[in-house]
Structures are given as C-alpha cells and as structure tokens.
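User: Can you predict the 3D structure for this chain?
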Amino acid sequence: MIDASLIEKLKNELGDKRVQLDDVARDDRRHDYWVLNHLRSWRGEALDRPGVVVRPESTAEVQAIVRVAAQTGTPLVPFGLGSGVCGGIQPDQSAIVVDLGSMNRVREIDETNLIASFDAGCNGLEAEEAVAARGLTIGHWPQSIAMSSVGGWVSTRAAGQFSTAYGNIEDIVYSIEAVLPDGDLVELGKAPRAAAGPDLRHLLLGAEGTMGIVTGVSLALRRQAESRVYSAYHTPSMAAGFEAQREIIQTGWVPPVMRQYDAMEARRNFKDFAAEDQGLLLMVHEGPAARVDVEIEATDAIARKAGLVEAPPGAGQHWMKERNHVPSWVELFEARLVVDTIEVSAPWTRIEDVYRDATESLRELDAVRMASAHSSHVYRTGLNLYFTFAALHEDSADMEASYLDCWRCVMEATARHGGGIAHHHGVGRLRKPYLAHDLGENGVALLRKIKGAIDPQGLMNPGNLLPDA
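Assistant: Here is the predicted structure, written as structure tokens:
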C-alpha cells in the first residue's frame, strides 16, 4: 500500500486533482493490452492495481515525482497509452503509475531540418497528422498508431508497417529526453550522426520503462510521397516468395511495404484476391513518381523470375483500408477462442525452417485450430515472420495454459533455428523467460549490470523485461 505521507508529497508537487486514488483511475491503469490480462479480467479474476496514479503535465513534474519515489523507495511504472501487448505494465499496490497522457504537446516542427519534437505522451496518429499538415510524414505506421504514444514507440523499439524503406523507430529517432531513476534529466542525441562514444539513446530504446521515464522524443521526418502504387503476386510456396523478397531488397529496391502471406492467411485476409493453395505477396511502392515507375518494372521482373504470378493490385488497396481493423479480445473469448500474434525474425538462410517448425509445432497442440504466418518487415540480411494462432476451449479455465503453450512453441522453434525471438513488440513479462535466447546468459547478466548501475534501488517498472532471477 502507498503511505499517506507519500500521497501528500505527490499532491504538494502536482496538486490534488492530478494525484488519483479513485478506483476508476487505478483500474484503468492496471495493465496494457496483453491478451492474458484481458482474459483474466474477462473471467472475473481480481487483478492487482497501482497504489496511486499521477498525471504530470511537464518534464519538471516527472522529475519531482521520480525524486519523491527515489527518496521513499517507491516503485514507478511509466504508462503511455496502454497499447503494449506483452505485459509490460502490471503494477501492484506498492507502485506509482506515472500516466504520461497529459504530456501530449507537439513541441516543434522544423521544416528545414525535418525534425519534429513531441511530448512522450503524444498520440502517434495525432503526431503524424500534425506533420502531415505541413506536407511531411514521420513514416512510422504501427498497427496501433491511433492508440499508442511516441514515447511508447521508443520504449518498445517499435516497427511500423512502412519500415522496409523508412526504417524502424531506432532509425527515425533523432533525440530522446528522459528522466533517470534519481530524477536527473538527460537529453540524448543532438546531431544527424555522432561518434561521441556509445549511443546512449539505446539505453532507453527498448528499455520498457526499466531505465527511466521517456518524457520527450524528436523524430526525423520525410516529405510526403509524390506517388503511391500497389502490386501483388500469387506465391506457389513460402520459399518462392522469400526468394523474390530477398532478391528485391538485396538488388537495392526498397518498397516501403513488402508483406508475404501463406496460403491460409491469404484466404482469410484476401478472399476476393487469393488463388487456390497460393500465398500472396503484396507491395506498396511510393516516393518520387519516376522512381516508383522504375521500381515497379524492376520488382515485377524479379517476382516473375522467382515463379510468382501477378495478382489483382486491389489486394494492396484492400490491405491499406483494413490493415488496422482487428476484433476485440472479448469477442474472441466469447467464441471460446484465445488468439494472438507472435513476431520473430531470422536470416534468409533460416527463415523457412523457422516458419515450418513453428507452424508444425503449433498444429501439434490439440486445441489449436489455426496456425499461420506472414512476413511484414524486410532487411538485406533477412526478414520477420508474424505468426497467428487460435486455440479453441469450451472451458475458459484452459485458455491461459494453452496460450502460453502456443507462445512456447513459437519461441522455441525460432531459437532452434537461430532466429530472434522478439522483432518489434518488445519483451514485457511474456517474453522475458526467453530473453537469453537472444542475448545469451552473459548478455542477460550485462543487462542486469546496466540496470543495476542506472537504477540501483530497482524502482523502475520492477518485474518487467529482465528474466526472473
């Protein structure tokens, strides 16, 4: 429980109205969008909630909150807009949740240097709309853009749907402002490129609130594209589609969107465009019109050489229109289904093995009714896969164990073939048992040392990211 004297200190810093103890405020900040917490809530389980929610409106107020917590040994859990899906937010009665939703200003848009600065709590779609009004774009389009924050993008090392050309968040971030666990303020990044020692921005990128609280983010912008064109191809096999994508990217073409669906996902998501027993590769080409025209011609030749057959380009428009529409967890639970997506990555020489092993392992589970995958982010060295599973249970009490079994299958299959177990949703509580697959035991130990040096009291988002000892 939070001590009454601590509450008074917080009220002295923020005022009574922004120190919230009511049940509604605390219930709304109990967890993020992770399936398991929603399942537990739907089943009527009592979920823990924070001792208090505070809503700062400035970086100075965040510093004041952190100093109060440091002086009293009180855990802190930063909360953006709650769109995380790996259980990164799970405070208990001893914790202060620092809700950054009131820190939502567009600080500056610099049209000459193409840099925009935002409060960390700024809604991602609102940030994009602010720069779009100037003919610019951030170029970062996660599926959660309308319900995620720019600070959350940094904290989870997010990837957007147009990343193949525009990069992931670590490629877009110009600078990060953050409050450290002792209340000190750091501003990391001040030039287009630097060789001033290790890049300290990466202590916050992907740290999921365990190293400090991100309070401001500056992002490098782009001018909006002159032209946008869609192309699509039927793929006779996953291998054929992978080979076409590898040749396109390694030749030097970079369509911002390259997405390859296996036959099951093609039928499910593109029923008006899919061919029998065929997968689907769709691309979005955009940029200067002349370059787009040349890219379309070149990628078409590569696709045909790999044995792909042209599909209706309307598949691309369909994806663009529907790409962020997903059913609610409750709708699925009521159908007695537990469903999730799992994103991993691997080099080109291993990605087909990851796909085959993971889907076969999922299908061996009795309750699994669907196991499929698509790729959505492409690199010269490999690509990611996005697995989708659905498990059916008449008894909702069986859903949680089944869900964790499905995750275990994909994590272990990915690790067996040398892939990376987390592509862009972060680690949270869900993936932390598997973190050693990516970092190695010595890497995990190094991360613990860094955490201990920055946060010696262990107050920042305890229980998240780092594997249990």
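The mean pLDDT is 97. The domain at 329-433 is CATH 3.30.300.330 (GMP Synthetase; Chain A, domain 3).
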